[in-house]
Design brief:
single chain, six-stranded mixed β-sheet, binds 6-O-phosphono-beta-D-fructofuranose
Length: 549
């Protein structure tokens, strides 16, 4: 059945009319006239606080956005996802990353299979394994405890574990270091192999499909490197796999007992909660990993049960729709004010852009409105000294998400207050801006003459009215991190429902993969030069010539 076009929906049209009337209304004025603006436009859920008051919206905007969410059946789609319906239509799969963090008592069957039991059996396996590594009972080939974990995987089998290991590094086991190799570029693996001792290194080959070129090439190279000093019999103590593909894992030479399974109803970019999180469980311990799952589950419960108007993922999503579809904002910048979240924006890029970077609806019709924005960002305060100039005074409207943590996990005096001051000052500056009148008064007070003042005024004026959300948590605990990631997962889900796309496939990565295989055969001389455009032909010829030289 072809769904009605989003752009033709009456509520979407009402939002357009509303935007034409108030889209540019000044937040500065709204804050001045609404003393309760923060308390009206903020909420707490699952250990997080969202302040969305510094957005270009009023109560009518929110009412219309929530009406749109209802009209597009966000609640019914959400319930279908949690119930295990096959909402990933192009792959005919359920979407059940939420089941990975549900308690043992949850009843959930997919195709007649009790998946809660399956999930908890693997969690138990991870628990036992992580304790063995951490305690030193699991020893390498010459009896020494493991010191280094090398996770080989890419995309969702890399970004999640690496980001979470970094985020929770304050709780890392003192003996253990985690390394992450993803790129088929041999510089990546070579740099890690140069640092580790094969006798005390554990490789985790993490790949849902166990066919991904980059991962398989790195895994084979790591295996060859290991066998330069070890035997085939030693492999079992140094190589484990996380995958859905048992035959490929055993074909690679990893014992089935050393494989941590997961399932096709877990999308790669939603897999950190599965055994793909094994490196996290080993590094910070299974109890912390369980807290991480529990935090995400709390956000799931909130998303399932809170009315749309007080539902954090829904609010974040619908505010994003307001900027994407009515203000025409084509990117969103994320600024975590915590160095341990340095990889968070990169993680969100895959989560959001691989999910909602689509141009047709789930039923294959061209979209009638723009879909997923570009997601990008870096930590505060670093971004302030790099690209915030454009955010403040550039020509594009780029909504921001600030993420801050009230309590630091270090004890260095003074730093944290300055960090938080910067975070709060930035959102204030984005909202307030600085008018020409204010700039002129400043310059005159500094004693500049009239000509010098007028020459500087346009440069020192900030338009302001630039929107942002602020997310706060008490501390960067595993539970709060789990809730934060789940919040963004559900935001992406809600936006996908509004746009009517399938947020759970990723056909867009296929074409390049196929062409790369053909070109790799040409570069290696295994196949004769093929028909390409003149640019690609010349690039291949240059690379061939460099190889020959
Ligand atoms: O790039 C496409 C993709 O399928 C991602 O969605 C996925 O996370 C990544 O490749 C890695 O896939 P796998 O875990 O199967 O190696």
């Amino acid at each position: 059945m072809t769904k009605k076009r989003l752009a033709d929906s009456p509520t979407f049209r009402q939002l357009q009319t509303h935007f034409d009337a108030v889209g540019d209304a000044a937040m500065r004025t709204q804050f001045a006239s609404e003393p309760d603006r923060y308390s009206r436009y903020s909420l707490h859920a699952a250990g997080l606080m969202l302040d969305y008051s510094k957005n270009r919206l009023n109560q009518t905007t929110l009412d219309l956005l929530m009406a749109l969410a209802r009209e597009q059946q966000v609640e019914a789609r959400r319930d279908a996802m949690f119930a295990g319906e096959k909402i990933n239509l192009t792959e005919q799969r359920a979407v059940l990353h939420t089941a990975l963090r549900a308690p043992r008592s949850t009843a959930l069957c997919v195709d007649g299979q009790d998946i809660t039991a399956d999930v908890h059996a693997v969690l138990d396996q991870m628990h036992g394994f992580s304790e063995q590594i951490r305690s030193g009972n699991w020893v390498g080939r010459d009896g020494q405890a493991i010191t280094d974990i090398v996770n080989i995987g890419i995309g969702g089998s890399y970004l999640g574990p690496k980001m979470v290991c970094q985020a929770l590094r304050a709780q890392a086991h003192a003996r253990l270091s985690c390394h992450f190799v993803s790129n088929v570029d041999g510089h990546d693996l070579a740099a890690v192999l140069a640092k580790v001792n094969p006798a005390t290194t554990l490789f985790i080959i993490a790949s849902k499909t166990f066919t991904t070129t980059e991962t398989m090439m790195n895994a084979h190279s790591a295996r060859s490197w290991f066998l330069q000093s070890g035997t085939e019999a030693d492999l079992a103590r140094h190589f484990v796999a996380v995958s859905t593909n048992l035959p490929a894992v055993t074909g690679f030479g990893i014992d089935a007992a050393n494989m941590f399974p997961f399932w096709d109803w877990v999308g790669g970019r939603y897999s950190i909660w599965s055994a793909i999180g094994l490196s996290v469980a080993v590094l910070v311990g299974f109890a912390a990993f369980r807290e991480f799952l529990d935090g995400a589950h709390r956000m799931d419960q909130h998303f399932r049960t809170a009315p749309l108007e007080q539902n954090m993922p829904v609010l974040l999503a619908m505010i994003g729709i307001w900027y994407r579809n009515f203000h025409g904002a084509s990117s969103v910048s994320v600024a975590p004010y915590h160095q341990d979240l340095a990889l968070f924006a990169g993680y969100l890029q895959q989560l959001d852009m691989e999910s909602n970077g689509k141009r047709v609806t789930a039923s294959g019709q061209p979209l009638s409105a723009a879909s997923g924005p570009v997601i990008w960002g870096d930590t505060g305060t670093n971004g302030q000294h790099a690209y915030f100039q454009l955010l403040h005074q550039g020509s594009d409207l780029i909504p921001m998400d600030f993420i801050a943590v009230l309590n630091a996990s270090h004890t260095l005096p003074g730093h944290h207050a300055v960090l938080l001051a910067n975070c709060f000052a930035q959102s204030e500056a984005f909202m307030r801006g600085k008018t020409a009148v204010e700039v002129r008064a400043d310059l005159q007070a500094q004693g500049l003459d009239a000509a010098a003042t007028e020459a500087l005024v346009p440069h020192k004026t900030f338009p302001g009215n630039r929107p942002s959300n602020t997310l706060l948590m008490d501390a960067l605990t595993p539970a709060n991190l789990g809730a934060l990631i789940a919040l963004y997962e559900h935001k992406v889900f809600v936006q996908g429902v509004i746009w009517g796309v399938n947020s759970f496939d990723q056909w867009g990565v296929e074409l390049g993969k196929v062409l790369a295989q053909a070109i790799a055969r040409e570069l290696s001389g295994k196949s004769a030069p093929q028909q390409h455009d003149s640019s690609t032909t010349a690039l291949i010829a240059l690379a061939r010539a460099a190889q020959m030289a």
